[in-house]
Amino acid sequence: MTEVLHELLYDVIGVYNMAYAAVLVAFLSRLGVAAADRAARLSTFVRRYLVALGLVWALGILTDAIFPNSIAWTILPAVACACVFRDLPLPLRVARTSLAMCSWMYSLAIAEATTHAFGGGIVVAGLVSLVYVLGMLAIVMGFERQESLDEGTVNMTSVIPVLVVCASGLAARAILILRSDFGVSPYSVSTLESLLTCFNGQIAELVVWWAILRQLREVAERDRLVAERRVMASRMEAMEAYRANADSLHKLRHEVKNQYAYIRMLLERGDYQKAQEFFGQMSMSANPTFSRVNSGNQLVDDIVNLELDKARNAGVTVNSRIAVPAALPVEEIDLCSLLMNMLDNAIEACADDGPKEPGKRGTDPKDAEPKDTGDKTIDLRMVLDQGALVVVVANPAAQAPDVAADGRLRTTKGDEDLHGYGTSVIRSVAEKYHGLTDFSFADGVFTAKAMLVVS
What we know:
By secondary structure, the chain is of the alpha+beta class. The chain is 62% helix and 9% strand.
């Protein structure tokens, strides 16, 4: 019994088991961390390493009992660790696991050739394999960093090419090993062929992965440019709308000023009957869009009053609390885009009383049937506090909005490609002024917040 336990312990702490466990944890963990997190991440790495070592040992024992072969011993622990360690999104995890398995298989042949040529035992072979695979990991991480990998853009379809190449490489290694296992050809005779296969396969996998990352970056860059064009178009449209309505408001103010001056003249002359008649005519023809917000900032007042008219036409009430100075160090187009998009989103959300398609917004069954609360009141708060312009817009909502992969809130309009960029506009303006945005849902209220640093 003692000998059996000793043998099992030796198997656990075997050089190749220890090296392969380290490789799997390194490939399937996030390695880039801040200095403050290093201690915690080191502790996590040690725990994961012990788990990986146990899996490598247990599955190694299983494969030795059923089908003793380095191919099975390589694949099973890698798949098990990929299921246990979930730092990375599934597509990236699958690609990393495939690259780790192939690199490890290639390293075995290189280690064997190294020890055969220069001597050394199992320890030297294990170290050669470990150094080789970690070197491949460094190259892979360099590719991912150079191409600015956005994990959200990596899907299973995009990683299929690297999976095919890795599967081909593993199949080539399996053929060489099985030829030796079944006595078709001595393994030593195929050493040169084995090394050439390894180098060719490794180079092919790295090139394919680099090409995938490059393509993903180009697609992400194209989407970013399209979004920016739409953002700029939206901002220009908002600015034109503001200017057109601002001109109307300015003309209205000028007309009212003249009308009041005329009434004052009639009163001073004592012609009260005529003043009363003129005042009655003016009241009947008065424009209902006359300014209802007077914060002291002409630009803010014009924009908000324009949105108040939109809200009134949609049957929505807006409660506003605005405390800003007469002049703000924010460009007109930016302030216009920010306020219009935040308020437009809220007005559309309140005005949209139509039934939603069950399950369209979320996966929670309780969200399948939206509730119409009947509340159509928007709260707008805008204040300049300690060098930061803070804008908060809150509107009632039956359920939390669905968030797309790129961070946009999914629109309920028919064409998602042309709509739903309001949040992108808001984020763009906030980022320009080194600020922040936050979109949250709680207790039936959706709240959009934007903070711009203006001091």
